[in-house]
Amino acid sequence: MKKFTKMAYAIFVLLCCNTVLAQELTITGTVTDNRGIPLPGTNISVVNSTKGAQTDFDGFFTIEANKGDQLLFSYVGFLPQTVTVTNETKLEITMQENVEGLDQIVIIGYGTSTKKKIATSIGTIRAEDIEDIKFPSIQSLFTGQVTGVQVAQLSGRVESGFKVRVRGVSTVGASQEPLYVLDGVPLINEDESINNSPINPLIGLNPNDVESIDFLKDAAAAAIYGARGTNGVVIITTKKGTESKPKITLNTSTGLNFTTKKRDFLNAAQYIELYSEAAQNSGVSQAEIEARFDELALGRDWRNGEVDTDWQELAFQESVTTDLNVAASGGTDKAQYYMSTSYNKTGGIILGNGLDRYTLRGKTDVNITEKSKAGFNINLSKVTIDRISNDNSFISPLQSVAQSPLTPALLEDGTANVDGNSTLYQNFLGQEQTGRFVTDIWRTTANIYGDFYINDHLNYVSEAGYDSNRQSAERFSGSLTEFASVGGFGTVSTANTERYILTNYLKYNTTIGSQFDISATLGGSFEETTRASQFTTGQQFPSDDLQTLDNAVIITNGGSNKTKYNFLSYFARSRFDYANKYAMTLSIRRDGSSRFGSNSQFGWFPAASAAWTVSNESFLSNSQFLSSLKLRASWGITGNAEIGNFASQNLYGLTSYDRRIGVSPIQLGDPELKWEKTTQYDFGVDFGLFNNVVTGEIDYYNKTTNDLLFNQPVPGTSGFTSIVRNVGEMENKGIEVRLSTNIISNSDFNWNLTGLFTRNVNTLTNLPSGDIIDGVNILREGESLSSFYLYEYAGVDSDNGDALYYINSVNADGSLNRDTTNDVSQANRIVVGNPFPEFQVSLNSSMKFNNFDFAFILQGEYGASIFDQAGKFTSGNAQFFDNQTVDQLNRWQNPGDITDVPQARLNEENGQADSTRYLQNADFIRLRNVTLGYTIDPTFSSKFYLDKVRFYFSGLNLLTLTDYDGYDPQSTADFNGNSGVRSGVSFYSAPPAKSYTFGVNVEF
């Protein structure tokens, strides 16, 4: 019986083997593209096996496989294709080109299109391109992703505002920020901060909710938003549900935050040495300087090193960021939904700074009929920010680096040292211990739409949008602050801005014959924005623990304000396409704004664009080198109305005289104030090489802004200093290049590389009012906006240690007098650099190898300058008692010394003028982001009902290469705001945070 069993088993195994062998087939065939051209080098592999082959020069292949096996065909630049083996042993495989962005949907304003159909310059960021990369904010998504877009964070505060510039700066006095449109709603983008330190107006948006971001860069793309398209339009589209089973996504991460850079300041011994010498050089006796050291040290033994305070270490801190995001999506053929909620707690790198953000989003789309649909979208967020004073405040933590290292930060009992003789400035730790500064921001954005089918060619769309930005700030300064003398001081302020948008338009599409496509859009919109604000102040609080205003003995001030403005707009757009070769788009918008003079409230904003898809011509149909080629040209006019609500009006305010109340003029108005308009030309080419293995875009643009809106100075005899007028002209011109390549693409390894290059040159081409100077910046015809206007530093006189300046008077032949002087009043200021980069570059790489993914972003800027206003105090030759940077140890001391640091002189100016001594190049290359992830094999995770489990590490701002010796080449003074003449000035401005984040993504 046992023998029979063994024999039967052997026969069974043999039969199985014969069966398997019998099923193994020799598969042959060819692989071509959709034009019939062979694709040599195509990879063919048997899925879930080690078997593989490649096509030869004629596209021919041979491979062994079993019936039922799956053959995977992959070739760089083409979509992978899978074929199941049957009894057929000869295959003819046609690969489809992977056109990526060419067929991707782009948002063009009141509609959509595909990349290959548009004739304008639009940059796009897709969720799938960035889903594996961790970004802390919406604007940080932009950095290094799109040509022609510069993103700079003002400082390292967690709530810090951003500068986003699309194709340079096109205005002076009006807003320089682009228009943000979230799911069809133009967003409120005004700062409501009570301490002149801008808060990021998009801080309440959750980056995980973003589906796509489209940048309308040229006028033909942005003109459909006419009134506010001068600075570009950024269209943010959030994720939505799809017709699928319910899907839950969980993203959670924890990060560690550090400062990207710390500067080197003098320690106590170096400080004593420098200031003892400075006192001697200025005739101050040793007894006097030692007495001052005694005051600074608050009686501690500075001679024996009893005190050596590192104020920078006290100002900076290491912190933790926690992020949790949960989303659910799905739907049927009748309705689709997307819901998400998130919590983010970000610790700042500056003591006393941090935020908590809560968001809740819901989005529903319903198919009313087979061809009509409606939807609703709402986003709720609350952000609570622990704030600190702005850069220009003595109580700002980073300004404490100017405190003497001889000064103890704390008394023996642990309270802040606020002795007025010991501290040079108010000790910020006093505010930390007995103060509170909290801002709460509630943001609601919502829109509801209906897309109604009328006939096969015509649809009617109606949208209603709403945006509410409510900000409440409470600030209390107690017994250890600068307000101790009044018993403490408290402020409460609220500002509530609401925007309502009604939009209705018709969409028409038709085809004439088989070659001619026509589409058109016609509609109008009405927008109203209201703002209400209140503030109250009080003083004399009985205790530092009682910080609300109902505990103030005296209410010292208060007030409220209400205002509103509106836009009324009509727009039309038509698009013509013939044979997928020739396309033309025409658009026009008429905008009316209540902000302008009664005779100039409306403006026309036309645009036109055309494209020729050369690669669809017969003479290129068989090209193996040039797989796609499109030539584009566009022209258009856009406007700017972001100047405040009453700039065209004569305004009056309350005044008092001899205890009598009256009214007096407070603003000169210009009833002829009109739209600032920008005319832009764009010429571009889109191309793909080697079956789109390499793709690229090249654009040249020229933007001219006429009737610039800004405050023009007027004679003081008028009783005013300035008036808002349309004066002057500005030009931006540049070139943008984007190159992308899919270096490797197969089932195991995929590697994409993208390089971006932007050059922009800004020039004030007409300024009839003459030079306008504001601090170290100047508006001058023929120069860049906000150019630096400074004395030119000439180094140090090696004989006596005097600081020298070039005289720079104009000689008879027009040249500059390059003689030097030690008297700055004998020198002349000249234009030396500007705060805007001439070149921007970035390199983005993403790799996927089996279950691993790796990505990085390198970003660089060249040609900009930055002025260190604080350097006049902290690198100022010991003129004041501020602590100094270590470079002051290289000062001139003896005749014959060769150095750029003048002799140290206490209480005497020797090189501290606004000169190029404190102007530096802001060039840098930054490793912006690095991400390494690992996804668990789905065959394993699916056993636990999980579709995807990915662990990742992400690093932000890991390395910055720059010659700038300040904190950061992009960090500028937050109190300068985002517009106007002043720009590019640093003043104790904090660097961005360096973050290391560990997280997990789960889908089920």
Q: Describe it for me?
A:
With 1004 residues, this protein is mainly beta. The protein has three domains: 20-96, Carboxypeptidase-like, regulatory domain (Immunoglobulin-like), CATH 2.60.40.1120; 132-260 and 318-791 and 829-876 and 914-1003, Maltoporin, Chain A; 268-317, no CATH class. The strands form eleven sheets. The chain has a 22-stranded antiparallel beta barrel. Strands 10-15-16-13-14 form a five-stranded mixed β-sheet. Helix 4 (268-281) runs antiparallel to helix 5. The chain is globular. The two termini are 53 Å apart.
Quaternary state of the chains: single chain
Provide the domain count.
3
Which secondary-structure class do the elements indicate? mainly beta
What fraction of residues sit in β-strands?
over 45%
Total E-strand runs: 52
Molecular shape: globular
Helix content: under 10%
CATH superfamily of the largest domain: TonB-dependent receptor, beta-barrel domain
Residue stretches low in confidence (pLDDT < 50, at least 5 long) are 1-22
* Number of helices in the DSSP assignment: 9
